[in-house]
Structure formats: C-alpha cells, structure tokens
Design goal:
alpha/beta; Oxidized Rhodanese, domain 1; five-stranded parallel sheet; 5 strands; about 40% helix; globular
C-alpha cells in the first residue's frame, strides 16, 4: 500500500501548528521553575550524546501514556498546568510531532525546540552525560524514610 502522506508532510503540518522556540529562547528560560525541558530521544541517543541539564527524560514511545491521567503510566509531573513543557529530540522532527500529539490531547502548555539537540549542541548550549544526569536526578530526590 503506497504512503499517501510522508513524514516530511506530517512534520511540516505539525510545525505550522505548534509553538517553536529557538535554542537561545530556551536557554534564557532554563532557570524558570515554570519551565520543564523534556528530552524525548531514546536511551541509545542519551547514552551516546548526553542531554540538557535538568531535562525530564520521557521516551517518545511513552509520552502520551505519561501525560494522560487516566493511563496506568501517568507521571504526575505532567499534571502541572502552570508548567510549560518544552520538548526536544535529535533534529526537531519527532518533537514537533510529539508536541502536536500533546496539543491534540488538549495540552496548551507545550512547545518544542527548533533544530532539537543537534542545534543545542551546535550553539554550544550546556550538555551533561547520561550518567551525570542520573546522579544529579538522584541527588534531587528526597531521601526515603
């Protein structure tokens, strides 16, 4: 069966309907407690390239399930309507599609980074290894009593 709409058309349609930030715009907002950067790349990319310090790691294949309060996989972090979630992937294609999917689910507090992690790296924005990210996340978690 021939494809009637290719990935490029899907990405272009999503890009026309979602909020897109430049790397500079996102860097300027990194300290804002009402902004959560979300890395939707898979673990192989994270291991190979690292991630943005403080990013929430949410694999693309689980994103809709993590966002939906009725899902058994719901992550409460996504229930905060006062937080803007800024997604990124490798080049900005998957994050455009993911942002559009979340908008289709009813989220209005979602955007993505133009050019994705490749553009983030190109502009010399901060990066940390996956191991450093895990250690920093563990340090932020409250101790269990």
């Amino acid at each position: 069966m021939p494809i009637t709409k290719g990935f490029r058309q899907l990405v272009d349609e999503a890009m026309a309907q979602v909020k897109t930030y430049s790397v500079d715009e996102v860097q300027a907002r990194r300290g804002d407690p009402k902004v959560q950067i979300v890395d939707i790349r898979d673990v192989r990319e994270l291991e190979r390239e690292g991630t943005v310090p403080g990013a929430l790691l949410a694999p693309r294949g689980m994103l809709e399930f993590w966002v939906d309060p009725d899902s058994p996989y719901f992550k409460p972090v996504f229930g905060d309507d006062s937080t803007e979630f800024i997604l990124f992937c490798g080049a900005g294609w998957r994050s455009a599609l993911a942002t559009k999917a979340l908008q289709d689910m009813g989220m209005t507090n979602v955007a993505h980074i133009d050019g994705g992690f490749a553009e983030w790296q190109k502009q010399g924005a901060p990066i940390e290894t996956l191991e450093a990210h895990k250690q920093a996340h563990a340090a932020r978690r409250p101790a269990k009593s």
